Amino acid sequence: MGNRTTDFLEMRNHTYPLKTGINRTLEFEKKGLCSYSCNPAVKCGHDCLYCSTGAMMRMHPAFKACGENPFGHGYSICDPSTPERIAKDAQKIRKPGLVQLSTICDAWSPEAQNHELGRRCLQALLAEPEWFVRILTKNSAVRSDFDIIEKHKDRVLLGISITATPERADVTGVLEPNASSITQRMSVMIKAAQSGFRTYAMLCPLMPGISDDQKSIDRLVEFSTHINAEEIFAEPINPRGPALKDCQEELEIWGYEKEAKAFEKIRIRKNWSRYVVNLVKNVQKSVQKYSDISKLRFLLYPSGLTSEDKAQIRKDDAGVIWLGKG
């Protein structure tokens, strides 16, 4: 399914000079994802309606410079010169480690592909032998760079965000308008596993009324074992900013009334909290059934939970990574 209002070629694609290449990231270290991050953009062209980047990056000067609303849609902002900064940082940082490409945007989104950002960033990082890279993308275009990964199999972890089963490709196409289809993403992960690449599963986010039921999670976790995932990450949809409202309204426009009501319901804090409790239980059950609970990394910011639900999760928080202050 195409973009909800325009084709990608009609999107507003901006470039803006960023200042950093490789950043230290304590928050993502707590998540168990990486110690460093590389982000060649502040807004990627996949344009997912539930994206929380706008809420996190809303004060970045790039939005004002490009005349865009950080919570808006239909545009991208990237910096084609990012790989050059990454190359410099990769050489001068004294303690190399695991770096994620990327944490707030996607280095293989359509506009990033126009500048070969994913490939160039990956080359810049792997040129230095002590760096390890965790790739995270929603785009099957990463397959075109398998030749690079092949040369550095031991130093690259590949993950493609899979947010639902293939049967829900219709509705994910509404919420992730410019990302590759679920089937395409799964196909690339299968190919990666067959090629002997290191893989991990990123089931994020698992959305209400779409992919939070036990049957769907079972299938996704079973798929994770099929691709030999070293870790299984999962998380609920982030309630920050206007994301839940945007998703609800777009689903209504496209006639997905049941799914729209599921999003509307969790806009109330106590309902979002209950959705998370059930999601944690469902994911734990699936991982215990099809994999190993030691592989689970359920990422959870508890600030939106009610005290009762927080206490309930803590009674059995196997695989839960508690984030945020305290």
Instruction: Count the E strands.
Output: 12
| N- and C-termini, Cα separation | 42 Å
Shape summary:
globular
Largest sheet: 9 strands, mixed
Q: Which percent bin holds the helix content?
A: 40-55%
- Indicate the low-confidence ranges by residue numbers: 1-6
Bin the strand percentage: 15-25%
The number of helical elements comes to 14
Secondary-structure element order, N to C? EEHEEHHEHEHHEHEHHEHEHHHEHE
Q: Biggest sheet: strands side by side, in what order?
A: 2-3-6-7-8-9-10-11-12
Structural class: alpha/beta
Instruction: Please tell me how large the radius of gyration is.
Output: 19 Å
What value does the average pLDDT take?
94
Question: What is the fold's blueprint, element by element?
Answer:
Blueprint: E1 12-15, E2 23-24, H1 26-30, E3 36-38, E4 41-43, H2 53-57, H3 61-66, E5 75-78, H4 82-92, E6 98-101, H5 110-114, H6 117-126, E7 132-137, H7 146-151, E8 156-160, H8 169-175, H9 182-194, E9 198-203, H10 214-226, E10 229-234, H11 243-253, H12 257-265, H13 269-290, E11 296-300, H14 307-315, E12 320-322
Parallel strand pairs: 1-5, 3-6, 6-7, 7-8, 8-9, 9-10, 10-11, 11-12
Antiparallel strand pairs: 2-3, 4-5
Walk me through what this model shows.
- This protein has 326 residues and is of the alpha/beta class.
- It has a domain at 161-326.
- Helix content is 40%, strand content 16%.
- The chain is built from 14 helices and 12 strands.
- Helix 10 links the parallel strand 9 (198-203) and strand 10 (229-234).
- The protein is globular.
- Mean pLDDT is 94; it is low at 1-6.
